[in-house]
């Protein structure tokens, strides 16, 4: 298929894998991808097995569902049990266990929870159900934020009074810095996310190459893209360079998508936010600005405080930071499975544990 | 968190469905025939072997490109019988109809039941109708049961895959699931994707009448090719090796899967089968299949490579290797 086959090319993939072996000269190199879609592609196409043993690929906090903390899920569950509320969400959030329930269990018990493919569908649901409060679960990185921001602008234009967003939107570069500054895992290079970078461009990663001397390559999603990106990082290492390069040139511009960035700026502002397993990261979240607070579910609803019960034994927090691999968790495949997930990395279709479970 | 209620995922055909049967149905209903959990139960009556099967059809929408709930109800049951190596002869047909359902739609469905039964050479010899109040069912649900005769010497089952077997897939994958889903979500693609819904009993009869050594036959319906391969690997306790390059997929289906983030290996088919056939006769079997209606695009997609492990390994299109697992959770509800 055009625009797909070219990037799932066996000859090119094998060539890049061979080059990586040659220029890495048996040197131990640890690379991290921080995008759930990259994680899935790496497992789905068996990329690890194509690379020499000295190249280690780690998965970082690249799955938005996985890094969403328990208390956010609990808030969504609490909202879903209100009589006059319709929760709208992307499908992955349905199965994430909160402290006492999950959205799919709430749905089985009668809550009105609807899976949407786009926030625009949530707007339509709000338009059709003016006697209900329609709340969209705003989970995602820089990629999804422009659509959420434009939906809020649209809702304002339409004078919709029953459409709300509860934002857990997050920014990727601050989390990358936390991983680099922490000493728990040594990262020699970053495979930077594709979609996030179509919005933010290459500039926001520059501090990683300039201040921390870590090579970064923005990679496309297809397997040959990823192998080429790995080759470009290893080449930087071999040549003692650290730069931000764009492999995914067919979609990413150095300066990003200016229009999308300006829509985000019109509706959201930076805030400190909690990442599951990592804790609070300064200026890594996005909250709705005061001008649009009437669309902010966090502002309009009050929530009961519930202490979060920790799942003993679940090491999702460490998996998200690349400190542990899923098979090092004693719950993995035994207690924690995709049908009965304990931690979010098993729930999300882009979670590291789910990828490991499915493909290894 | 306790699981006290049935979720949609229990109907997906994947692991949750297996759990539902193993943990909830078998403890009450277990017997030597049921616990085989093949597509049909095979039993002996006065020295003659029979296959018996049942299936319910709740597809939404009831009319979709390439078929409708009536055609599906005949093909599904005929194919389940054929996968046991049986020649289907008689069907029963039960209807649960929602109050207010239009006669014109009922007649369209009945006409397609008639035509499909004629094509498959089976007769509907008994039936039942129930009408229930609005919202007690969604439009119309159909149950069909079927009975078939198995010729002497034919023993086909999910536990008979043997090392060296070639694995034949009878054509393009994923068309039914994508056709139904596109219609349901109002998605349109440049080329219309039609369901592959078709009776497969004649193509199977063509292989069996030559006396070729067929070990396993399965139709990859709900849960798709990946599910069938996993079921056979586990039941026969063998390792299966598949080449991704060899799996026939139409460009339109591939494109739809790309857009919706689906893996065609897990998408339902209603007119395809997978055959595990002894190495020596695999080429001949492939030739027969390719010369039969509905088998023109058949290909050998892999081999049974060793005993034990009960797993499916895939050589990916770029030359890597990975496991193909059973699907989990809710894939696409109400596709059949």
Helix/strand layout:
The complex is a heterodimer of chains A (360) and B (336).
Chain A: H1 10-24, E1 29-33, H2 36-44, H3 47-50, E2 55-59, H4 64-67, H5 70-80, E3 85-89, H6 103-108, E4 112-115, H7 119-128, E5 133-138, H8 145-157, E6 163-167, H9 172-181, E7 189-192, H10 195-200, H11 206-210, E8 216-218, H12 223-238, E9 244-246, H13 258-267, E10 268-275, E11 279-288, H14 297-300, H15 316-320, H16 344-347, H17 352-359
Parallel strand pairs in A: 1-2, 1-7, 3-4, 3-5, 5-6, 7-8, 8-9
Antiparallel strand pairs in A: 10-11
Helix pairs in contact in A: 1-12, 2-17, 8-13
Chain B: H1 15-29, E1 41-45, E2 48-57, E3 63-64, E4 67-68, H2 69-82, E5 86-98, H3 103-120, E6 123-132, E7 140-150, E8 166-169, H4 175-185, H5 201-208, E9 214-218, H6 224-236, E10 238-243, H7 251-260, E11 274-277, H8 279-290, E12 299-307, E13 311-315, E14 321-324
Parallel strand pairs in B: 5-6, 10-13
Antiparallel strand pairs in B: 1-2, 2-7, 3-4, 5-7, 8-11, 8-12, 9-11, 10-12, 13-14
Helix pairs in contact in B: 2-3
Using the CA coordinates, give the radius of gyration of chain A.
21 Å
* Biggest β-sheet description of chain B: 7 strands, mixed
* Overall mean confidence score, pLDDT of chain A: 93
Put simply, the count of helices of chain B is 8
Assembly state of the chains shown = heterodimer
- The CATH class of the domain at 65-171 and 256-300 in chain A, by name, is Alpha Beta
The coarse silhouette of chain A is globular
Distance between the termini of chain B: 31 Å
Number of domains of chain B: 2
Mean pLDDT of chain B: 92
Low-confidence stretches of chain A: none
* Rg for CA atoms of chain B: 19 Å
Percent range of helical residues of chain A? 25-40%
Distance between the termini of chain A: 27 Å
CATH architecture of the domain at 65-171 and 256-300 in chain A: 3-Layer(aba) Sandwich
Second-tier CATH architecture of the largest domain in chain B? Alpha-Beta Complex
